Amino acid sequence: MRVLIVDDERPARNRLRRLLENSGNVEIAGEANTGLAALEMIEREKPDIVFLDVQMPPPNGFEVVRELRTPNVPLVIFATSYDQYALRAFEVSAVDYLLKPVEADRLDKALEKARTLLAARQGPRTTLENLEKLASALAQPRTFLERVVGRRGTRLHVLPLRQVHGFVAEDELVFALIGDGRMLVNYTLRDLEAKLDPEKFARVHKQTIVNLSSIAEIEPLASGGAMARLQSGASIEISRRYRSTLQEKLGW
């Protein structure tokens, strides 16, 4: 099967590529980081399957599906951090819907569904029964991350989230801030923002998520942003864009 990976975040593309390469019997036709690039590559490369992010600069994932004009439209598997798009994904006849960070066993199940559809030479069918099952699953209480795995050197550490003061992104890497420094984690900030409890964690900058209970002091700035000192002693910037959200959560 030839597959195309479409996501505007390189770490997410890298993770999916690695999982696909390990799954076997899959040829990666290429990668695209925008909807427009995806449409061009679909027409040129004619992949069997497109792994498509939902939230991207226009055109987003759903808009890409609506724009497909090739004679043999590929099967679409959505991969995104946000579960609220799931019903809509099936309404546009997606084969499957994966929540990021994508897990290997879940990916294998999606690939198996795609293989069955390709072998049968038919497009995916969306049935009322499938939609009802999906709606029922989404109605279950939402669960949030309770721990993350951090890497320091060659060692892996299981970090309960109560011990994590926040997460910061540098280039393509994301680090968990802990009392004695930081550790590399295998998430993007977008993944974390979707999977962390919003009552406990908040995005305060395009490169920073903070544990609200770790904030010890806040200094508003004339520019409209602020600086926060954490209980660990570290300082983080609160951008003007996110200051009002933090004010609402903390009541200051």
Please explain how this structure is put together.
The chain is of the alpha/beta class. It has two domains: 2-138, Rossmann fold, CATH 3.40.50; 147-250, OB fold (Dihydrolipoamide Acetyltransferase, E2P) (Beta Barrel). Helices cover 33% and strands 31% of the residues. The protein is built from eight helices and 15 strands. It has helices at residues 10-23, 35-45, 61-67, 86-91, 104-119, 128-138, 189-195, 240-250; strands spanning 2-6, 27-32, 49-52, 75-80, 96-99, 147-152, 155-160, 166-170, 173-178, 181-185, 201-205, 208-211, 215-220, 226-230, 235-238. The chain has a seven-stranded antiparallel beta sheet. Strands 2-1-3-4-5 form a five-stranded parallel beta sheet, sandwiched between helices. Strands 13-14-15 form a three-stranded antiparallel beta sheet. Helix 2 packs parallel to helix 3. It is elongated and about 60 Å long. The termini are far apart. Residues 123-128 have low confidence and may be disordered.
Helix content: 25-40%
Secondary structural class: alpha/beta
Helix-strand topology string: EHEHEHEHEHHEEEEEHEEEEEH
Number of separate helices: 8
Integer count of domains: 2
Main sheet: strands, sense, barrel: 7 strands, antiparallel
Number of strands: 15
Please give the CATH architecture of the largest domain.
3-Layer(aba) Sandwich
Q: Provide the residue-averaged pLDDT.
A: 86
Q: Give the CATH H-level superfamily of the largest domain.
A: Response regulator
How large a portion of the residues is in β-strands, by DSSP E? Answer: 25-35%
Strand order of the largest sheet: 7-6-10-9-8-12-11
- Terminus-to-terminus distance: 54 Å
Which CATH class of the largest domain is shown?
Answer: Alpha Beta
Query: Judging from the principal axes of the Cα atoms, what is the shape?
Result: elongated
